[in-house]
């Protein structure tokens, strides 16, 4: 990492580092991380911290039998939300006491990030805090989220925040040295990958889930995060946050774990946000998919090319365009609701339909992202 007054770094810290025993927050690992933050700032870097751990930190406020009695997924979710509310203040207070500069809490949901107006507002707030030397500490607002509203894991959240902040680097501090070619907790011969130059299906195939009871997502969500970040030109590291040496090496410009190098040709800001932060609410299956080569082809989609419409969405919602063999083609905004599109798709009279859609194209032209075939197995409509 090079020191440059305008460069920004996002540091993501996993739950196992914050509350290793689920007995409240511990400074055991946080001291080295806090020193790293201080030293980065001394070098002129602007630091944003994405901190997990509110649920792990809040767990000890609830008796063991509250967890044991929460047998249904809904009851467990309600308990976790309460733990997050109790643990968030403890976590913020713990971070705060390491620093002699102010910190600021930012709690986000996916609903905030996918809304363009709110997203731009978040960008502005982060910049204003950094310009005043305040350390933003970001977490998902677990207390208010539902499945439809949440990002779901702080690896992906940290990549969205890094993109929003135009960061140069993203450092994901985990409980393991980096990405191995297979899960090292299950395979003694697993090997560490020092650098990943291309994130494809073979890289996703290496990733297993979390083995700890405090982590969320395991390596899968870290690779998803890296994919988001590198396409924004952000160098992404997965490092072992248990080891103080990881931070010394980063400060010395070395790679202590796995590096995913940021793309030399980053996507434009709005296109990146639309591709990697906004999610699709439905799908439209189209014919003649091989003729779809550009955003303009998508914008000119005609009614007789629509074969099927899946899910319920409203006018202006984001949809995934797929070919009839299931290949992902593009993400786009629909100018029509799913109901109306279904009606259009069923009509045989294409002339009538073309006159119907003449005034307003099926696809809104300003937000169209062509997609590569699916590498990420978890990427679905949501
Ligand atoms: N290929 C892999 N390489 C490294 N770790 C892996 C791999 N597959 C699965 N894992 C698991 O991912 C864990 C790290 O993710 P997670 O438990 O979610 O931690 P965090 O709280 O840091 O996000 C590792 O400890 C390991 O158990
Ligand atoms: N937002 C949650 C953490 C979610 C999460 O991704 O956790 P982790 O895998 O430990 O980074 C919390 O504060 O407990």
Model description:
The protein has about 375 residues and is α/β, with parallel strands linked by helices. The protein is built from 15 helices and 13 strands. Strands 3-4-2-1-5-7-8-6 form an eight-stranded mixed sheet, with helices on both faces. β11 and β12 (about 330-335) form a beta hairpin. The two termini are about 35 Å apart. Mean pLDDT is about 90; it is low at about 1-5. The structure holds adenosine-5'-diphosphate and the ligand N[C@@H](CCC(=O)OP(=O)(O)O)C(=O)O. Ligand VHF binds next to α3 and β4. Pathway: Amino-acid biosynthesis; L-proline biosynthesis; L-glutamate 5-semialdehyde from L-glutamate: step 1/2. Belongs to the glutamate 5-kinase family. This is Glutamate 5-kinase. It is found in: Cytoplasm.
Radius of gyration over alpha carbons? 22 Å
Largest beta-sheet details: 8 strands, mixed
Q: Give the % helix.
A: 25-40%
Indicate the structural class: alpha/beta
* Count of extended strands: 13
Mean pLDDT: 91
Strand content: 15-25%
Q: Strand order, main sheet: write it out.
A: 3-4-2-1-5-7-8-6
Small-molecule components bound: adenosine-5'-diphosphate, ligand VHF
Main location: cytoplasm
Domain Aspartate/glutamate/uridylate kinase: 7-240
Keywords: Amino-acid biosynthesis, ATP-binding, Cytoplasm, Kinase, Nucleotide-binding, Proline biosynthesis, Transferase
InterPro entries: AceGlu_kinase-like_sf, Asp/Glu/Uridylate_kinase, G5K_ProB, Glu/AcGlu_kinase, Glu_5kinase, Glu_5kinase/COase_Synthase, Glutamate_5-kinase_CS, PUA
